[in-house]
Amino acid sequence: MSDSFRAQRASQLESQKSLENSLSHLLNSVADNSPPPTPPPELTPEELINEDFRVACGAYVKGRVKLGVRCKYDLQMAQEKLDAGADINSQDPDGWTALHWSCCEGYDPCIKWLIKKRVNPNIQDNDECTPLWISGYNNQYSSAQILLWGGANLSIKGKSGGTALCKPSISARSQRNPSVAEVIETEEDLRVNDDKRMERFINGEGGGFEEYRTEMKEAITRYKTKNKKY
């Protein structure tokens, strides 16, 4: 290797080092002059226990660590928070309840538990979406069935972003989730022919969930045949 090449290479390395130092200095300067991060608002004791309850049911809260290691939901913790005064229908800043979060994530045991605790399945978030709408949009088939078994309203319209308001079944179809749409449409068809059906489910008089699921399997087949939806 020639001396001239060594000198040229040394010069290049020196220039690179100088550039890196300059960039580092610039970044540090920007960081030093940037405003401090805005601290999260302090919660009242009531708000905190409600947030704890939602987290126990699967909610994500920025800056909060999930309960336990890789914990999705914790029904024991949720019950403790209820016993301590948490509101089962409390909403986060986006309007999501514990049920919205559980339905979005497909936490079926948590959804069943909330339904049995008489949660309101029809609360709308800031975009007017109910938990059933969220289930349809996110292709959560079992979650949708549990909500229908719990007496969820099928007609409340919601939206996502700039989309137009639509019913839960349409939200499912918009995301190419036909199986979820079919189970909602089938339940809607059954309610049209039985005006007391929704009332029975709301009052917990519609039988167990497994019984409902068996009934729906047969009803969906009839509905698809009648409407030629394959």
From TrEMBL:
<protein>
    <submittedName>
        <fullName>Uncharacterized protein</fullName>
    </submittedName>
</protein>
<feature type="compositionally biased region" description="Pro residues">
    <location>
        <begin position="34"/>
        <end position="43"/>
    </location>
</feature>
<keyword id="KW-0040">ANK repeat</keyword>
<dbReference type="InterPro" id="IPR002110">
    <property type="entry name" value="Ankyrin_rpt"/>
</dbReference>
<feature type="repeat" description="ANK">
    <location>
        <begin position="94"/>
        <end position="126"/>
    </location>
</feature>
<dbReference type="Pfam" id="PF12796">
    <property type="entry name" value="Ank_2"/>
</dbReference>
<dbReference type="InterPro" id="IPR036770">
    <property type="entry name" value="Ankyrin_rpt-contain_sf"/>
</dbReference>
<feature type="compositionally biased region" description="Low complexity">
    <location>
        <begin position="18"/>
        <end position="29"/>
    </location>
</feature>
<feature type="compositionally biased region" description="Polar residues">
    <location>
        <begin position="1"/>
        <end position="16"/>
    </location>
</feature>
<keyword id="KW-0677">Repeat</keyword>
<feature type="region of interest" description="Disordered">
    <location>
        <begin position="1"/>
        <end position="45"/>
    </location>
</feature>
